[in-house]
Design brief:
Distance between the termini: 141 Å
Largest sheet: 5 strands, antiparallel
Shape: rod-shaped
Structural class: alpha+beta
Radius of gyration: 51 Å
Oligomer: single chain
Order of helices and strands: HEEHEEHHEEHHHEEEH
Strand order of the largest sheet: 6-5-9-8-7
Amino acid sequence: VYGINRKFYILNGASGEVLAGSGGANDSGEDLIFTPNLTAALRGENGDKSSIAAGYMDVALPFQRGDTPYIIYILDNTAVLSNLVDQIFVLIVEALGFGLVIAILLSFLLSKTMVDPLQRLTNGIEEVARGDFSRKLEITSSDEIGQLTESFNAMAQQLETTIAAVENERNKLDTLFLHMADGVVAFDRAQRVIHSNPAAARLLGRAFTQEDTYGELFGDLFPFEQAEAADGHLAGSRTVGGRFLELLLAPYARASQGGVLVLIHDVTEQRRAEQQRKDF
């Protein structure tokens, strides 16, 4: 191919005469064109500049052998340029294909490295939302995701401890309310019953439901707004089934929540003792 599309010449560096060519002894270089690179070599400079607009590509290198200067000249025609462009295009396509495959593999590995820990975190959050704090996530790296996983484990453990403490306190309060002799009825700010103990039902002679309201039960003593705004507590009394009941109404508030708490105390025996003392 090069014998057809690429030509080699050796020229006299002083006169520019063709001494030998790739066509053999009969190649006198009659069709040789003195290009800018060849002209530069005749001046003793390296002719290695190229132009995209030119229909050829050449290089001319001067050298000295003894006292005689020579020039090696290589000329590629359009066919060689096209062949080079085709080869470069194939190399670019192959490089792009190889780079695409590498990018896909790296993206897959990166996604596995990042998505799997995030998926485990998501599953852990869902389990914590369901109330399961026993699962501890595995820390597989020391980067930001690993630190996030470690923080999540610490948060889940602290949350489990806090909820256990709150549950313990609630159980103690439930036990206290269940077995205390005084009745307790709690209302929220919508005036609905949110808590009552058996003593309250026994003293008032009725069962409580969430449909019961403050107005129905104790509205005759004090308006709800007055009881909720009270500084300390309000005291009232009531007689139910021959029992003398002393009622203490006090507000309670916790952040955005709050309401009124009613404490019911049976003072029947005290009243009778006082009456007997008066009669005596």
